[in-house]
What does this fold into?
Amino acid sequence: MSDRIHVGTRKGLFELARRNGSWDIVETHFLGDPVSAVLAQKDGTVYAALDLGHFGAKLWRRGGNGAWSELPAPAFPPKPDDAKDDPHPWTLGRIWGLEPGGVNGRLWAGTMPGALFRSDDGGESWTLNEPLWFMPERRKFGGVAGGEQPGLSTVLVNPRNPADIRVGVSCGGVWASTDEGQSWRLINRGLYAEYMPPELREDPISQDVHQLARCAAHPEVMWCQHHNGVFRSEDGGATWTELTAVRPSKFGFAVAAHPNDPDTAWFVPAVKDERRYPVDGKLVVARTRDGGRSFDVLGNGLPQRHAYDLVYRHALAVDGTGERLAFGSTSGGLWISEDGGESWTTPDARLPPVAAVRFAQA
Amino acid sequence: MPRVSFTRALARFHEAPTVEVEGATLGAALAAAFAAQPALRGYVLDEQGALRRHVAVYINDRPASDRVRLTDAVAARDDVYVFQALSGG
It folds into this structure.
């Protein structure tokens, strides 16, 4: 059970700790700077990705002594002459997903533009995953999040096999590798895109995969919050079934999977999709405990009147027990549950817009 | 020698002292400044060597005209100013 939460926001990184039964901010870092991703590992190491408006995307690491130091950020290789017609820039825009690789020292970083980077030395150096970047299909990835660049938002490593990886691209579908990223294949059968012309509705590249989550104890079970619905897979993402029972709406960005129970997951729905705010101004969490056949709408402790909070892809987190959850919103709200989402409390703080929420690995 | 100075906003992250450097072009002058303080390079330039979109560079009173290849001429008594080009809430 994790007693520490890191919250990355538009104006800094906030660290909360549970003391005497309540959660409070105990430390602040990078105040004033946008934090796009955060990862807190079991040994106490914390990684924070900054998205500095002027000076680019940066990566910092906090070691056991509590001091932060800057690491080299993932960087693209020199753009070759024959890539002049590449629709995507060969410059790092943002670090969006940051995941441990399941091997000592290994990290994966998903970025804007849609690319994957790997470190094998705790972030001291990074290498572009060339097999994915140089695949011809990559140039068909579409833009996301108000920008022209695609984003690789999710990296899921199989806890039982670090060579078995899934990535989610917005917009570019679900990709699988079973050889540590040496080769990739597009696997998202069953996802469909309402927003595309009919001929491209099931085009795998056109799928706007907002976020993926995977049950740690049953890694073949995966969940997807897609731009136009919620989906579940029981075969590691090869085929997907839409969960039409989701309430109160099917649009959203975030999804969290229960670490042990393959039938339980949480979403934070919003009005679909041009006007993105909670249905009727009531902020709720949708939880299924039966594999998506039915959903509970959970609002106890959440604002149920005039709430216009949206929850981004990386801003909903579950801890290693599946009992504690936390999520943060575009309005700077932060809510924490200790009973699987049944009830929520909010710490005494008015935060900046929240990009990322993460429990420290316990 | 040309003189390169940096916005104080950079000092929050790394020391960014004003330095006098050798260099006949903007690219050469910046490279010489970064040789003394390598951590600054990635704050001013992207990994392809171009000026970051929201970084402004002036040579005396002229904005740098070649923001990609940094070929603007820099003379011995010129001042090169590096600062941020936008603000926001």
Notes: Chain A touches chain B through 16 residues (CB under 8 Å). The mean pLDDT of chain A is 95. Chain A has one helix and 27 strands.
